[in-house]
């Protein structure tokens, strides 16, 4: 086995996965530390997670937002365990909504460098930061699920001389110069968020009204012979679709698209191709997706590495990691 693949595997495969597994912080492994040292570092992250605490740039959450977070957690446990992940409940204390009138220097820089980012998972602080005010509760729910899935993804750090460094997050692998699989990880996370939306959003009382309104608009588009296929795809994929009044009268549809659309297209093509080349091993493309999804939660990482190697040859796993990767400054 190649060293690169070994590094990707990292965690021992579990033989039993029927039990509901839980964790106390997002960090599951510390590499390069003695078992005692690993425990100390993990405890430090657990403490950070438990403390929650408020952020200097945080605004108060509404009752509706708190209810939404509770509802999402309720179903996330089942969903994460379905993909063999170890569930971490994320209380509203660990989710921070930024008040743009009181941002500190650090947050100001993050916002300036990422103008279109709705939110992010802050590993070091064990928090989710929500940067922009969502125009609709379905869009907020979409952003929250995406970040809560990052939070629940497999994570490890390396203990070094000058402190700890990120090692793996989902299927991302961090080196000094490159984050391998960065965008593939994002694509899988958003595809998971989409599946979560379809499975559970309609069950949540707080979302039911908006789900019904979205369904009405999307169904009318899907059933119309006047609508182009490309618009139907857009409607089916969107986090939300609304009808708005135009300035000069009349109405128009507005699609609130899911992020990482290009990366998700590339993932789809990769899955289609792997499925075609390994038809005897899988009964559907979704089976192939499941291998990618389980790798994000730390299981079957070696299975994914081997599948790619056996399909595309020696070295392909690394190359794909680079093409979906991001160079670090
Ligand atoms: Zn993301």
Structure commentary:
The protein starts with a helix and ends with a strand. The protein contains twelve helices and twelve strands. Helix 6 crosses helix 10 and helix 10 crosses helix 11. By secondary structure, the protein is α+β, with helices and mostly antiparallel strands. About 2% of the residues have low confidence. The strands form three sheets. The protein has a six-stranded mixed beta sheet with strand order 1-6-7-8-9-12. Strands 2-3-5-4 form a four-stranded mixed beta sheet, covered by helices on one side. It has a two-stranded antiparallel ribbon with strand order 10-11. Among the domains are: 164 residues, no CATH class; 50 residues, no CATH class. Zinc ion (ZN) binds next to helix 5 and helix 6.
Strand content: 15-25%
Adjacency order of strands in the biggest sheet: 1-6-7-8-9-12
Helix content: 40-55%
The averaged pLDDT comes out at: 91
User: How do the helices and strands follow one another from N- to C-terminus?
Assistant: HEHEHEHEEHEEEEHHHEEHHHHE
Low-confidence segments, ≥5 residues, pLDDT <50? Answer: 13-20
Compile the SSE list and pairings.
Blueprint lengths: L2 H7 L19 E3 L3 H17 L6 E2 L3 H20 L12 E4 L6 H9 L5 E4 L4 E4 L6 H16 L2 E6 L2 E7 L2 E3 L3 E3 L1 H19 L7 H15 L6 H9 L2 E6 L5 E6 L4 H17 L7 H12 L4 H12 L3 H8 L2 E2 L2
Parallel strand pairs: 1-6, 3-5
Antiparallel strand pairs: 2-3, 4-5, 6-7, 7-8, 8-9, 9-12, 10-11
Helix pairs in contact: 1-11, 3-5, 5-6, 6-9, 6-10, 9-10, 10-11
The structure holds zinc ion (ZN).
Zinc ion binds next to helix 5 and helix 6.
